[in-house]
Amino acid sequence: MPDAETGLVVLVGDPVEHSLSPQIHNAAFQAQGLNLTYLACRVSPARLAAAIDGLGALGGVGANVTIPHKQAVLELATSASPSARAIGAANTLVRTSDGWRADNTDPAGFLAPLDSYAESLRGELAILIGAGGAARAVAWACTEHLGARVIVAARRVGQARKLAETLGTEAMTVADAQRFARDAALVINATPVGMAPHASLTPWTFPTGLRPSQIAYDLVYRPAQTRFLQEAEAAGATCIGGLPMLIGQAAASYRQWTGREMPLDVVRDIVSRQPDA
Ligand code: NAP
Q1: What percentage of residues in the chain have a pLDDT greater than 90?
Q2: Which residues are 128's β-sheet partners?
Q3: Is 162 designated active site?
């Protein structure tokens, strides 16, 4: 039960209704007996600065930040981690003695389920479908941490070029990138295509006869088994869904607010009980 000592963590975004973050973090706080509570707050772009100031005035411990504020929030932070600065977007704020420190935990979340494959991906081709906010964090993780060669593939090639230029990678349309489908060691869906309620769609066509060393990674986590992953599995590739990334990025934020490791078994159980998960 919250009391006068309860520390506040919020999610700031628009929309926020679909978010699993309140369930994830509140379950973890409770499991570890931490007197913290996590609320999701719908905030318009015009009210972002007031909301972040207000959280500071209320003694808030931290925040997650989601669409459409991930870039704008960097301007409101007094410091930023190297990943947030390089990506140009943040999803986490942590209270410090002189204001908010911004971080981006999406790369850590993205890399978590790739841990055992990291060595085999070095120097290999990664095709990244999508050029939005999540793609930006994933492209950075692929080049900086995996040492992969990245093709950013988007339906609007201009958007793909913009992302590719800042990271020194290649850019093309999704249709053109299909030519490299057989060569890619990693194909990542960083678009919402395939997400419920449009679960019958996929942004990619996998050729038959892929090897288990070839990985299909879908950032979409609702449903857990997308058409993109079903077709990759049928073609012979190894599949990774979006839930481990969701939990991984949450765990990296949690560590910064609490100084503790998130109880992953508790969180996996909560997430597995959500509809479509
Ligand atoms: P975003 O900033 O809105 O970017 C979406 C990207 O997908 C844009 O490049 C967009 O292109 C493209 N796209 C949208 N509809 C498309 C279509 N029908 N065909 C081809 N491309 C299309 O969104 P985001 O924040 O990057 O998120 C992308 C997805 O990743 C979402 O499903 C989100 O839930 C998921 N995600 C998961 C995690 C996780 O932890 N698992 C973390 C972050 C994001 P246009 O600009 O042309 O529309």
Answers
A1: 93
A2: 152, 188
A3: no
**Distances in whole angstroms, Cα of residue 16 to Cα of each of 21, 29, 44, 189:** 9, 20, 11, 22
pLDDT tens profile 180-230 = 999 999 999 999 999 988 889 999 999 999 999 999 999 999 899 999 999
| 277: pLDDT strictly greater than 50 | no
Ligand 1 centre from 59 Cα, in Å? 33
| Atom 2, ligand 1: residue with shortest CA distance | 132
Q: How far apart are CA 246 and CA 122, in angstroms?
A: 24
User: 69, 70, 95, 222: which is the annotated catalytic residue?
Assistant: 70
Contacts of 28 (CB under 8 A, 6+ apart): 254, 262, 263, 266, 267
Q: How far is the CA of 92 from the centre of ligand 1 (A)?
A: 19
Can you tell me which atom of ligand 1 is nearest the CA of 201? 18
Yes or no: say if 250 and 257 are a contact pair by the CB < 8 Å rule: no
Atom of ligand 1 nearest to the CA of 106: 42
